[in-house]
Amino acid sequence: MDEGLRERKKRQTRRRIADMAMGLFMARGFDQVTVAEVARAADVSVNTVFNYFGTKEDLFLDRQEEVEDLQSRVVRERGKGESVVAAFRRDFMEAIEERDWRYGLNEGADVFGRLVGDSPSLLARFRELEHAQTQRLARTLAEESGAAPDDLTPSLVAAQILETTRLLSRHATARTLAGESWAEIVPQLRSQAEQAFDLLEKGISGYCVRV
Q: Domains, the chain, ranges and CATH?
């Protein structure tokens, strides 16, 4: 058996295990499903599951590496003359139109969000994931800008941009969970996103001046 075929079979096995796990999680909730049940559904041993996934949470976040790198890709792939904020504005607006999963705007994101919200261990893991995303984006910004090692600017910019997109995404998910349709959500989400990126782009020095 050549190396290419072995790797392909390993990818297929990993995908089957992850798909079976997610189906069980969505049907019954993350905390109510055991790794042994996932193994039976995927027709593999428990040891095989742990060969591919270090923890039960890894089964839920099987695309973690890709997710961690999504925001850095926005920076690396921005157009000539395009600022980082402009690149994220464009990418987020495109995601709204496409209902893309990269910002949690896809169909089913409400179910995903409910599953996470119902599980303390998943909530903790998502906080770790968000921290990893912010750190990776900060490193990318430092590389792209040539920042000095002790320059805090890349970390400050990464934190501001990602918290902005997360707040927008969470707001959209909350409205979906409240029963609103995507058609009802989109106009205000677009407006709020434009306002948020305007604040990032122009600064907040003129916001909420006391009179």
A: 3-59 (1.10.10.60), 64-202 (1.10.357)
